[in-house]
Amino acid sequence: MSRMIVNDTEIQNADIFEIILENFPDIIHSINENGDIVFTNRAAQTLLGYSRAELLSMNIRQLYAPDILEAVEAGFTDLKSKGDKRVESVLASKTGERIPVEIRSFSIYDDAGNFLRTFSILRDIRKIKVLEDNLIHASRLAAIGELASGVAHDINNPLTIVLLSNELLMRSLKELDGATPDQIERSTHFAADVQKAAEAIQKLADHLRNFSRGTAEAHEELDMAAVLSDALFMTASKVKRSRTDVVCDIPKEQYHIVGSPNRLEQVFVNLIANACDALEDQADAELVIDIASAEHDGVACWECRIADNGPGIPEEHLGDIFNSFFTTKPKGKGTGLGLSISRGIARDHKGDITVETSPENGTTFSVFLPCSNG
Ligand SMILES: Nc1ncnc2c1ncn2[C@@H]1O[C@H](COP(=O)(O)OP(=O)(O)OP(=O)(O)O)[C@@H](O)[C@H]1O
Ligand SMILES: [Mg+2]
Asked: Domains of the chain by range and CATH?
């Protein structure tokens, strides 16, 4: 909001309350018995787009979204008799934009108890509403995570039966009377396929169950490449859907770190998922992942670089991407929590996450985690 410029003498001569009311960041207005606006301040003009003269010739009912006028009418009647009220409502600006507000109002009366005026403070709560929506979405995602863990558990039981029965089937196939060796070989082949597919489902179900457990385990000795490989396993179907080529040729058992496997996997899952989102619909989508030794803040670390050849992050967003709830994804797709949580996890492990980006070279996120002596 623009500042009101006054000099010292003006402050002394002016009514100090007038200055406060005029410059208050929330809308302050007063209305009479009919609902006509008899006092308003600068915030009302800024927020609603009307001039002071326009506001002072308007009725309060003209400031609200048309679909809630009935509630406004009831609220006004209530306020005149009750004296004070705190509600949430929706204003409509001159251009028709809906602005959710929190309103605190009180009425004043004459000595005989007749209603004179109400005074109200209206606070713009658009940002709070967005945060609330995001929080609800985040908690829904958390609930889905829990459900997934339950589903994984339920899949596991019938799958154990499938695997056991299949093994028995494979054994009895060999002893089958009257079948030609060719028939036996073909049947054994089918059974082996069933075995492989069921084992893959079991691995995924197990993994999903562990991943969605959510709680941080105690820190343990880990191999960064193994954590990364688990994260690639979890994101495999997303990677496939985005038609991204993953180049990741990292030997295991070399990159010793200490940490919580679940939490660190969450970091890599988010970075890979972000890259896939950025690469969606791109013809030559590629994700190159490597690990190298690096020093970060004077500490010997393993640096895992996750580099996509996507469109890059616009300069104006770069300062915001690690902030909670910053997202450029459509509603229902991103909560904007991924990077802030990931950086928090990396820092909890005495590491960090940094980013380099440009429209020409795409985006590279680096995860630094201190080397452990094994
Ligand atoms: N590899 C990338 N390329 C381009 N932009 C990216 C990349 N990674 C992150 N971003 C930008 O950073 C924003 C914040 O990412 P973050 O992971 O915190 O949240 P999100 O992916 O939008 O939502 P969530 O992770 O909660 O589902 C993204 O919305 C996107 O604009
Ligand atoms: Mg994300």
From this structure: 8-124 (3.30.450.20), 127-214 (1.10.287), 216-374 (3.30.565.10)
**Which atom, in ligand 1's list, is nearest to the CA of 335?**
26
For ligand 1, atom 17, name the residue with the nearest CA.
338
Distance CA 196, CA 167 (A): 11
Helix (H) or strand (E) holding 344: helix 338-348
Q: Which residue reads 């440009």 in tokens?
A: 358
Q: 326 in ligand 1 pocket by Cβ < 6 Å?
A: yes
Does ligand 1 come within 6 angstroms of the Cβ of 101? no
Report how far ligand 1's centroid is from the alpha carbon of 366 (Å).
14
Q: Has this prediction a pTM greater than 0.85?
A: no
Answer whether 321 contacts ligand 1 (Cβ < 6 A): yes
Q: For residues 100 and 120, give the distance between their C-alpha atoms in angstroms, rounded to a whole number.
A: 15
CA-nearest residue for atom 11, ligand 1, is: 321
Query: Which bound ligand lies closest to the C-alpha atom of 340?
Result: 1
Give the Å distances, CA to CA, from 54 to 30, 39, 287, 366.
15, 12, 57, 55
Q: Quick one: CA torsion of 43, 49, 54, 56, rounded to 10 degrees?
A: -20
Distance between CA atoms of residues 168 and 186, nearest Å: 16
Q: Is the CB of 279 under 6 A from ligand 1?
A: no
Q: Is 278 in the pocket of ligand 1 (CB under 6 A)?
A: yes
Are 28 and 104 in contact, with CB atoms under 8 Å apart?
A: no
Which of helix, strand or coil describes residue 317? helix
Q: Which of 347, 231, 250 is nearest to 293 (CA)?
A: 250
Distance CA 213, CA 204 (A): 14
What per-residue confidence (pLDDT) applies to 2?
Answer: 40
User: Which residue has tokens 């208050």?
Assistant: 24
Pairing of strands 245-247, 299-308: unpaired
Q: How much of the chain exceeds pLDDT 70, in percent? A: 94
pLDDT for the residue numbered 55: 97
